[in-house]
Amino acid sequence: MYKPNGKPYGKKSLKKIVKSNTLFKVKKVRLIHNNVFVDLVSKNGKFKGYTSYINGIYNKNLDNPKLQPLIEAELGVMTAKVNKNPTADLLGQAQNEAAKLTGKEKKIADLSLKQLKKFVEYGTVAETPVLLIGRYPGSVVEK
After folding, report:
1. b/e string for 23-62 if b means 16 or more Cβ within 10 A?
2. What is the pLDDT of residue 53?
3. pLDDT at residue 140 in the model
4. Of 15, 57, 18, 20, which is closest to residue 37 (Cα–Cα)?
5. Closest by alpha carbon to 108, among 69, 137, 80, 139?
6. Is 42 in a helix, a strand, or coil?
7. How many CB atoms lie within 10 A of CB 112?
8. Rounded CA gap, 28 and 127, in Å?
9. How many beta carbons lie within 10 A of that of residue 136, not counting itself?
């Protein structure tokens, strides 16, 4: 993990982050020179920076059972887009799954759908919905 100025965090800081199970929020996914960077900020705001190790992180909401139908529907849209198949019906299915949700899950779903539509439009890994980080591409989190 690197600080915003590009310097890596020291071993002492990284051990502290790991030991305390610090949660991070993904602020943005960027594609620079064929490499993916994920901008992160810790929940308490103490640690900020980025990582290029996208397969080592995942969104904790991937474990939420209420979001599973939406996650599967969004993964279907992304797979279709990459395989150059039509996405309109699959996107409609994802929107239907999002409409069934309420409260906190509804907010997460709405943001994820907005990001999914950008992915459908532009089709690069940089537009991967934040909810799906850790599941796409490839699966770090076992089902």
Report:
1. ebebeebeeeeeebbbbbbeeeeebebbbeebeeebbebb
2. 66
3. 46
4. 57
5. 69
6. strand
7. 22
8. 9
9. 19
Phi-psi region of 49 (alpha: psi -120 to 50; beta: other; left: phi over 0): left
What is the value of pTM for the model shown?
A: 0.74
Instruction: Tell me the C-alpha distance between 108 and 112, whole Å.
Output: 6
Write out the two tokens for 98: 């999002």
Q: Which two tokens stand for residue 34?
A: 């064929």
| Element spanning 123, H or E | none
Question: 43, 80, 66, 55: which is closest to 132 by C-alpha?
Answer: 55
Q: What is the mean pLDDT for each group of 10 consecutive residues in the chain (143 residues)?
A: 90 90 83 78 90 74 93 93 91 95 95 92 81 71 45
CA 70 to chain centre: 14
